[in-house]
Design brief:
Blueprint lengths: L3 H24 L1 H25 L4 H36 L5 H12 L6 H15 L6 E3 L3 H14 L1 H4 L6 H16 L3 E3 L12 H17 L3 H16 L6
Antiparallel strand pairs: 1-2
Length: 244
């Protein structure tokens, strides 16, 4: 019976991802982000429970990756897709009718689907992770949960403040392509895994954790986007060696 506990938690992650996609498409971005956060919590505890119970299995590893593709790949892509569709509608309403209107409208109809490139690169990143033996105590490339939380927080936490408009669409597309690159890059990034709880040897991790607290207090849910950006910068600056 205990062998099924980690897999059950992983399935809760998968269900959270399905809920996030549904929320993104039909109800709202905020609910989608909270579903992604719930998926991240389940993703953390499924591996922990497997180790504590001593029931790790190849099936559990594969199931975990499949769930992660949905929750941290397809769900944030769906949020970005919906946002681009909404922005398209605003852009079209500002244009005059005519041939140029028809051409641009046709192009804009299909552009939001580029958001799903992020889902494809997330799947590729997870496949590489399963085969890469260098990532026991750290990551090579941006972890998919971090990427999903970045996009969810950017859309929910900063959308009202930035007042997303059609003019920001190129910036969103560049950020999306940058995310795709970071997911499959060879950039070493630290993981919050501790062999000991002391300061020595964990300086970067404690610095990161300590800096996250005031950001969360100041910016609330919008802090997650800043935290992930800070995580990437801190990793690039401090993790100069490439895992062998």
């Amino acid at each position: 019976m205990k062998k099924q506990i980690p897999n059950t938690i992983t399935c809760c992650n998968l269900i959270s991802g399905c809920m996030a996609i549904t929320f993104a498409m039909f109800w709202g971005y905020e609910q989608a982000l909270w579903a992604i956060i719930a998926g991240a919590v389940f993703d953390f505890f499924d591996g922990m429970s497997a180790r504590l119970l001593g029931v790790s299995s190849p099936i559990g590893k594969e199931l975990d990756s499949l769930a992660d593709v949905v929750t941290f790949g397809v769900a944030p892509s769906a949020m970005l897709f919906r946002l681009l569709m909404d922005l398209n509608g605003m852009y079209v309403l500002e244009m005059e009718q005519g041939f140029l209107y028809d051409v641009i409208t046709f192009a804009l109809v299909y552009m939001p689907f580029l958001a799903f490139l992020m889902a494809a690169f997330s799947a590729l990143r997870l496949a590489k992770f399963n085969l890469d033996k260098r990532q026991a105590m750290g990551f090579i490339g941006l972890p998919t949960p971090a990427n999903a939380l970045f996009w969810g927080s950017l859309i929910v936490g900063w959308g009202p403040k930035i007042a997303f408009s059609p003019a920001i669409m190129p910036i969103l597309m560049v950020l999306m392509l940058l995310s795709c690159y970071l997911l499959v890059s060879e950039i070493p990034m630290f993981a919050l895994k501790f062999k000991t709880w002391g300061w020595k040897g964990n300086e970067v991790k404690w610095l990161f954790i300590g800096s996250c607290i005031p950001l969360l207090v100041l910016f609330g849910i919008g802090a997650l986007a800043i935290i992930i950006a800070w995580y990437i910068v801190l990793s690039i600056v401090t993790q100069k060696h490439v895992a062998k």
